[in-house]
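request received
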Amino acid sequence: MNGAHDLGGMDGFGPIDQSQTTHFPEQWERTVFGLTLACGMLGKWNLDISRFAREQMDPGHYLTSTYYEHWLHGLETLLVQQGLVDKEELEAGKPLDDTRYTPVNKDQVASILEKGGPVSMESEKKALYKVGDTVSLINRHPSGHTRLPRYLRGHSGEIIFHHGSHIFPDTHAQSGQKEPAHLYTIAFSAHEIWGEFESKAEDSIMVDVFEPYIAQRI
Amino acid sequence: MSKDHTHHHHDAPVSEIESRVRRLEQLLVEKGLVDPEAMDELVDTYENRVGPRNGAAVVARAWSDPEYKHRLLTDATSAIMEMGYAGRQGEHMQVIENTPQVHNMVVCTLCSCYPWPVLGLPPTWYKASSYRARAVKEPRAVLKDFGLELDPSVQIKVWDSTAEVRYLVLPMRPEGTDDLDREALAALVERDAMIGVAQVSAP
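response:
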């Protein structure tokens, strides 16, 4: 979706503010971080679903709130969507029915983190492109989740890596289905993306691109 | 921090968001969706145990051991796992090498993807709109904000982490550090140099 999260190339945000040096300036941010990871471990949603939940925040609010407020919005949205809690309970701060669950416990945490969530998977489809190919990207603006940023759509670049197949995020966010898609890293010249006036010919942008985002070899 | 969960600070006014988060936490704990001890363990892991010292150890080893460096640049996930760093947000690692001709920097324009096992949680500026918006369009101006002015002839490569591959920059080893051992070298390597918004300086 063309949400406020898709920030590449926007102007007007001012200089980089490096003044904040702690991870959780406010206690509530620490809590949101812990709750989000703990709930994620319940396995009721995947990373792409949680990204999409954050992306759907009101754009004005997204841009004027901090990172962990995005997470808070995403977490509340997913908990309600999954029927684990309802809005009245969020308001009340306590359960309004007798349903109880079994949480992930402390002893399980380290092994879950260590295992991580690899997204590489076997695919029966052969890669359509190879390293060295110059390709153009599709110009699509889906209303669902996508990992093709707006600033790249329709542009051309050269494939510099092929990573095999990874789970395709667009369908993973929509249905939870794990469909493989070949993943490439594509080098785009800065001139191609930003034009000759606002960029330098020497500079480039490397982006991980799923095969369905590629229109054709050129 | 373990005691803070239900500890209410009655002396300070509670903001709307603090109150919202407290209600959410109480609800999730009472429902059995979250175990407060598991939550403490998660926070403690990333707040205190996992951080850029891990990445610095990887960089220092690559600087001292050409064979390791080769493995790191060709199969970063395995080479990093060999050092004991693996797991969430580091499942698919790629290491990119800075040279006198090429400077690499990493961003995630769509969210804030970051290699947790080697760098810990991202700094606030990495997650903020300004860095995410500007790094791809005006990398030289962004580097200037960090006090780094590169020669105009140096090529800048900006890596936008749009998939689940996580990038770590291998900075250039500073001159005059031939006598330093791995530990001393690792002490020179700061987080920002491994994101690519700084260089490593000699001691």
